[in-house]
Amino acid sequence: MDKPVVAVLFGGRSSEHSISSATAGGVLHAIDRDRFHVIPVGITRDGAFVLEDDDPDKFALDPAHLPEVVDNGTRIVWPDSARSRELRVIDATGTRSLGDIDLVLPILHGRWGEDGTIQGFLELLDIPYAGAGLLMSALGMDKNATKNVLTAAGVPVVPWVSVTRADLARDRRMWEQRMRRLGLPVFVKPARAGSSVGVSKVDEWGALDEALDVAFAEDGTVLVEQAVVGRELECGVLEARGDGLPRVSVAGEVVISGRDFYDFAAKYLNAPGIDLICPAPLQEGELREMQRIAARAFDALGGQGLSRVDFFFTGTEFFVNEVNTMPGFTPISMFPTCWIASGMTYTELISDLIDTALNRARVTA
């Protein structure tokens, strides 16, 4: 029997291009080559689809030189209708076929990839893909929309105010009053960005304008969130099998000792002041409650593929901070780390995502 052909899609136009490329390095190294045939497809920072080298080391996460997809002159040609799944490439020798693909594994972070755009593109072509669906991706990318949906579903979230530049221009005093009611400190973040890009901690109101400018550079809508005093916990969620419930990993904990918060440098550049602990020390009942809320949040947004649910735990209450529908997926990222601590290998986790998507495609065919 022929092996399923999986196009691994990475890079992209967002500010998280390098993180997606680093994720590709981990995935290309760990994907089960005995079970799947892999076609690496990179997206340059300008949005060109190129045939990339199947070389995991090329995309290793090196803080001194973050990996990226460079335009190598090739161009991927997607099927011209939903009647075909043939992938072609244009290179110096002309146009040649790469054969039919069975699935796309999009490991894109941020806008123009994690936000439903790629998912919608693939659905137009009727190409199955792994991970969250179109609506879930769009909701999960927009922190304001996520909070509104979770609140309606009875999931506790961190208090927040969302604001645009137009809001501030119309009535700055009113919006500043709303933000000040949250109390200090607050976190200011773009509504649609990840990997802590554009996020600032504000300890005095005089620093608010600068933090807003940093966040507005990433997105037109900005969230100002109340700082919850408590532990920062995370867990991974995978789509349910059959009629079962979503599968939830053990908890991991971000312990902050020498930084204001878990920022980009700490996540990906080995900056000091952060320790990641997995599994996190929790009472059995506490873990069970956290897993219950995580599964509820996952289902409320669409319940497809995967997510990492981030919490603040005060010692008596859990508050969902974010639901990330394509979390960091490098071998050292918290999402795979939590699943490895739950009994899966990194390779098995990748296979699970692919198998789940292939099974869904068979059911809906």
Structure description:
The chain is of the alpha+beta class and 365 residues long. The chain has three domains: 5-130, Rossmann fold, CATH 3.40.50; 160-226, ATP-grasp fold, A domain (Dna Ligase, domain 1, 2-Layer Sandwich), CATH 3.30.1490.20; 229-353, D-amino Acid Aminotransferase, Chain A, domain 1. It is 32% helix and 25% strand. The model has no long low-confidence stretch (mean pLDDT 93).
What are the defining features of this structure?
single chain, Rossmann fold, Dna Ligase, domain 1, D-amino Acid Aminotransferase, Chain A, domain 1, 3 domains, five-stranded antiparallel sheet, four-stranded mixed sheet, 10 helices, 25% strand, globular
SSE layout:
Blueprint: E1 5-11, H1 17-30, E2 37-43, E3 49-51, E4 75-77, E5 86-91, E6 94-100, E7 103-106, H2 117-124, H3 134-141, H4 143-152, E8 160-164, H5 165-180, E9 186-190, E10 200-202, H6 208-216, E11 221-226, E12 231-238, E13 247-256, H7 264-268, E14 274-277, H8 284-301, E15 306-313, E16 318-324, H9 334-341, H10 346-364
Given this structure, which CATH class of the largest domain is correct? Alpha Beta
Distance between the amino and carboxyl termini: 20 Å
What is the 3D form? globular
Q: How much is the radius of gyration in Å?
A: 21 Å
The number of helical segments is 10
Give helix and strand order, one letter per element, not per position: EHEEEEEEHHHEHEEHEEEHEHEEHH
CATH architecture of the largest domain: 3-Layer(aba) Sandwich
User: What's the arrangement of strands in the largest beta sheet?
Assistant: 14-13-12-15-16
Could you say what the CATH topology of the largest domain is called?
Rossmann fold
Count of distinct structural domains: 3
Average per-residue pLDDT, rounded, comes to 93
The class by helix and strand makeup works out as alpha+beta
Q: Which stretches of 5+ consecutive residues score pLDDT under 50?
A: none
Largest sheet: 5 strands, antiparallel
